[in-house]
């Protein structure tokens, strides 16, 4: 057949393309007679061959030829090469190509109208499998490689370069005039102010939100509402603001029991890599001033009974990806790092408080110890993989699934605590309707395991080190960077698979989530054996993803915690001006009036006094604020006060939920949250709520009052009562 040249006569071809489109017809042509039957295969790619075959075809606009009517619909005349069969003039209007698959031959026929409109020539093409293979190659070539701007990557550059090379993407180390798909920043969202599209690996406001003071405040708010769920964070006092409270409580504890002598760790607010951290046992040892300025920071209870391996204290560096805020998506790296101290651990005493290599696990500190061991093995040395430590614990009979489940819960709860403020920052930098990039970010969670295997959150790093080499002294006083196999194994996988998840060519539909605060509490994370995460790799050369989705996968167990996000949604709704982060007095009055919270017992004059009182005190607590007005944390305090005033007989959590439902019902479906709450307060929230904060070691110590007293004359008779928040945890 491939050696024949056949010309086709067509009886009727009136506007075939238009009719077929209008009727949605799947046409099929058949070649009867001596030639093999051929069925139309529009999905196959067109192609030509040196040899050609012509078949006379009578084409109609109807879907398929019925048995017994082929003589009316098709006329076949196989002629010798060069023979001509006339065609109707209306073929002139056709101007399209069709393909025929010849059954039983593995060939593709292609038909194209001749320039004069009188003939149709059908060419046989290559084998079907060959065509499909070639088409696959063409598609692979056609797909534009993902572009990554690495000009601001800083210390993560080497791991990023390796990841881009493994993915066969295109790197722009000096930036690019036209837009890139992904921008990798080394410090903050604002490393490049001129991005209006694509994706950036930093969220606006993340650095500010994860400073020691702001993180402590966010967790403290959650401890008020959910004291038992947030007992993984040590009690903290904010300096210098709460210095007097801290001093008073320590003296009271010592007067009550002279044998109690707790240890505290002091951390500067913006410190990193262990800089400025020290231990104290008495408030008089606090270093509150730097020259004439007060030092901003936190003082936390020190965990005196950590889990030890080889008699050394260690912590876990876990990498967490926040893929998006709306909807909230959280991934945890299946592999992490463990950083070991370099001096054998002893419980703190006045003699060893200054031994940083014994008490502080920071790599940047211990690497300067003479006992630090650089090892190419993942299970030895001063820096090891998390899996090697878990394997060693499992060999001793530790329930690793339980430990991992607790760590996942800690991560999700911490992210839920900081998300409300992040949403405010996000809408300020990228308001709805304004061109701008989408964001994602890798965070570094520093977690300590206590002797009873309970995980404790030490801090969250907005810019965890992704360096895959370390300093090594090659000669006295001469250092150079050499590869670190342990770092490369973990960090390259985290960056590479983060890029794979953010690949714009593999965007998956977002998973619908239940609205915040809409589930019952108390369910445990199922930790059954899970199937391997499917790779999004087309070539099959990359391993399965090392990042495990934990939210919204486990949203059912944690959505009830997202109450403050609902308060933030109300706050954002009344901000008014795009890019603003603080409520003015008029906006606050509008909130009160719209939600119908004022009345004869709570006049608008009282509303103004409340606004002034709370705003003034929070302005003093955040002296670096560049905007005037009521920020989110101050608004949350005001909201708690309004809830306590309106629903006096309920516990705090139920008060907040009741006021939220009242406000959302007044505002209607556009209150900034997607779905209406389906569970009632009494069903979702137990009435027996302990209003105590976590206590990791000394139950006598209570946390500073989360709500401040109103100073105005109108509120003296019902001042904000400081709540003593405690929860006992065994060491």
From TrEMBL:
- GO cellular-component term (any): ciliary basal body
Q: What GO biological process terms does the UniProt entry carry, in alphabetical order?
A: microtubule cytoskeleton organization
Mind telling me which InterPro entries this protein's record contains? Answer: TTL/TTLL_fam
Can you say what this protein is called? Tubulin polyglutamylase TTLL11 isoform X1
- Name the source organism: Pundamilia nyererei
Q: Where is the composition biased (Polar residues)?
A: 48-60, 77-89
Where along the chain is composition biased (Acidic residues)? 521-531
> Which PROSITE patterns does UniProt cross-reference here?
TTL
Q: Which domain of life is it from?
A: Eukaryota
């Amino acid at each position: 057949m491939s050696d024949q040249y056949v010309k086709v006569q067509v009886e009727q071809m009136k506007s075939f393309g238009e009719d077929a489109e209008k009727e949605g017809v799947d046409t099929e042509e058949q070649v009867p007679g001596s030639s093999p039957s051929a069925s139309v295969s529009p999905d196959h790619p067109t192609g030509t061959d040196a040899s050609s075959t012509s078949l006379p075809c009578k084409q109609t606009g109807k879907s398929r030829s019925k048995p017994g009517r082929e003589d009316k619909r098709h006329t076949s005349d196989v002629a010798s090469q060069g023979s001509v069969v006339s065609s109707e003039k209306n073929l002139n209007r056709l101007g399209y190509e069709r393909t025929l698959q010849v059954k039983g031959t593995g060939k593709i026929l292609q038909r194209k109208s001749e320039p004069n409109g009188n003939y149709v020539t059908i060419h046989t093409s290559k084998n079907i499998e060959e065509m499909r293979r070639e088409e696959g190659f063409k598609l692979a070539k056609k797909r534009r490689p993902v572009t990554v701007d690495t000009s601001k990557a800083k210390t993560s550059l080497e791991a990023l370069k390796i990841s881009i090379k493994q993915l066969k993407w295109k790197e722009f180390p000096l930036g690019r005039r036209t837009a890139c798909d992904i921008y990798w920043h080394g410090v903050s969202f604002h490393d490049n102010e001129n991005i209006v599209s694509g994706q950036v690996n930093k969220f606006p406001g993340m650095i500010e939100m994860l400073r020691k003071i702001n993180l402590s405040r966010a967790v403290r708010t959650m401890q008020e509402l959910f004291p038992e769920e947030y007992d993984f964070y040590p009690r903290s006092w904010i300096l210098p603001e709460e210095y007097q409270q801290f001093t008073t409580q320590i003296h009271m504890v010592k007067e009550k029991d002279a044998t109690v002598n707790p240890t505290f760790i002091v951390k500067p607010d913006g410190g990193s890599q262990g800089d400025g951290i020290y231990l104290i046992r008495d408030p008089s040892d606090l270093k509150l001033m730097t020259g004439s300025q007060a030092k901003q920071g936190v003082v936390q209870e020190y965990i005196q009974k950590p889990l030890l391996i080889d008699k050394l204290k260690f912590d876990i560096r876990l990498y967490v990806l926040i893929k998006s805020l709306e909807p909230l998506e959280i991934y945890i790296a299946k592999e992490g790092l463990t950083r070991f101290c370099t001096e054998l651990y002893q419980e703190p005493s006045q003699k060893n408080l200054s031994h940083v290599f014994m008490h502080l696990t920071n790599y940047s500190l211990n690497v300067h110890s003479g006992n630090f061991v650089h090892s190419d093995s993942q299970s030895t040395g001063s820096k090891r993989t998390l899996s090697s430590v878990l394997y060693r614990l499992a060999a001793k009979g530790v329930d690793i699934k339980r430990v991992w489940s607790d760590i996942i819960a800690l991560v999700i709860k911490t992210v839920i605590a900081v998300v409300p403020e992040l949403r405010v920052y996000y809408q300020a930098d990228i308001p709805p309707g304004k061109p701008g990039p989408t964001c994602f970010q890798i965070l570094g969670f520093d977690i300590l395991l206590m002797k009873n295997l309970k995980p404790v959150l030490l801090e969250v790093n907005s810019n965890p080190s992704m360096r895959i080499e370390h300093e090594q002294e090659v000669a006295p006083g001469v250092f150079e960077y050499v590869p670190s196999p342990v770092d490369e194994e973990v960090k390259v996988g985290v960056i590479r698979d983060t890029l794979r998840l953010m690949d714009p060519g593999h965007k998956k539909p977002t998973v619908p989530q239940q609205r915040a605060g809409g589930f019952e509490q108390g369910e445990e994370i199922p930790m059954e054996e899970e199937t391997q995460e499917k790779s999004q790799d087309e070539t099959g050369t990359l391993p399965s993803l090392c990042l495990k989705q934990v939210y919204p996968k486990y949203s059912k167990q944690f959505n009830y915690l997202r109450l403050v996000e609902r308060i933030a949604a109300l706050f954002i709704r009344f901000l008014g001006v795009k890019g603003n982060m603080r409520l003015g007095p008029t906006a606050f009055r509008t909130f009160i009036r719209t939600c119908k919270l004022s009345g004869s017992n709570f006049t608008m004059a009282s509303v103004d006094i409340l606004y002034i009182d709370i705003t003034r005190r929070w302005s003093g607590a955040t002296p670096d604020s560049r905007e005037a007005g009521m920020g989110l944390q101050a608004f949350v305090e005001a909201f708690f006060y309004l809830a306590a005033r309106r629903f006096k007989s309920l516990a705090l959590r139920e008060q907040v939920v009741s006021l939220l439902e009242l406000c959302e019902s007044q505002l209607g479906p556009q209150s900034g949250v997607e779905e209406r709450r389906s569970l009632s307060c009494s069903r979702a929230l137990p009435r027996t709520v302990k209003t105590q904060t976590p206590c990791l070691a000394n139950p006598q110590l209570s946390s500073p009052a989360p709500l401040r007293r109103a100073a105005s004359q109108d509120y003296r008779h019902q001042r904000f009562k400081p709540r003593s928040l405690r929860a006992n945890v065994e060491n």
